[in-house]
Amino acid sequence: MHFDATFFALVALVILFAGFIYIKVPGKVAGYLDERSSNIRRELDEARRLREEAQTVLAEYQRKRREAEAEAQAVLETARSEAERITAEAHAAIEDMIARRTKTAEQKIAQAETQAIADVRSVAADVAVAAAAQVLKTRIGGAAADTLINEGIQAAKARLN
């Protein structure tokens, strides 16, 4: 029988496979593959869990952002209405102050007019009395004239004031 290289290659291959089976290489390879598959499955589960957590956190932050925007809008509206109210109050206060000052000015003007009229009357009375005294002195003489003049001056002053 003649053995060629192919026969020896076949025998070597059978011995190699028998050796692999003897040292349990297929079991170890299967165990390694099972372990690797289990690790990949755990990593995928962890990635899925992390993705769900991230989506939950994202949804929470989006909700908080919407709430913050709504709150900011409410604060803005409140501030705007408060500013409008304060502006209206300020306008009303300014108009009231202007009305009071106008009334005070008008009262001061009326008082000044009254005082001016009284001053003019007083001066006119003094001038009229002085003129009457001068006229009476030139027409009536003596002590009787002085008494009449003084009585007339007092009477004229009392009537004019």
UniProtKB/TrEMBL annotation:
GO terms for cellular component: plasma membrane; proton-transporting ATP synthase complex. The chain crosses the membrane at residues 6-23. It is found in: Cell inner membrane; Cell membrane. Keywords: ATP synthesis, Cell membrane, CF(0), Coiled coil, Hydrogen ion transport, Ion transport, Membrane, Transmembrane, Transmembrane helix, Transport. GO terms for molecular function: proton-transporting ATP synthase activity, rotational mechanism; proton-transporting ATPase activity, rotational mechanism. It comes from the Bacteria. InterPro entries: ATP_synth_b/b'su_bac/chlpt (IPR002146), ATP_synthase_B_chain (IPR050059). Residues 33-96 form a coiled coil. Its main location: membrane. It is a single-pass membrane protein. F-type ATPases have 2 components, F(1) - the catalytic core - and F(0) - the membrane proton channel. F(1) has five subunits: alpha(3), beta(3), gamma(1), delta(1), epsilon(1). F(0) has three main subunits: a(1), b(2) and c(10-14). The alpha and beta chains form an alternating ring which encloses part of the gamma chain. F(1) is attached to F(0) by a central stalk formed by the gamma and epsilon chains, while a peripheral stalk is formed by the delta and b chains. F(1)F(0) ATP synthase produces ATP from ADP in the presence of a proton or sodium gradient. F-type ATPases consist of two structural domains, F(1) containing the extramembraneous catalytic core and F(0) containing the membrane proton channel, linked together by a central stalk and a peripheral stalk. During catalysis, ATP synthesis in the catalytic domain of F(1) is coupled via a rotary mechanism of the central stalk subunits to proton translocation. Component of the F(0) channel, it forms part of the peripheral stalk, linking F(1) to F(0). The b'-subunit is a diverged and duplicated form of b found in plants and photosynthetic bacteria. This is ATP synthase subunit b.
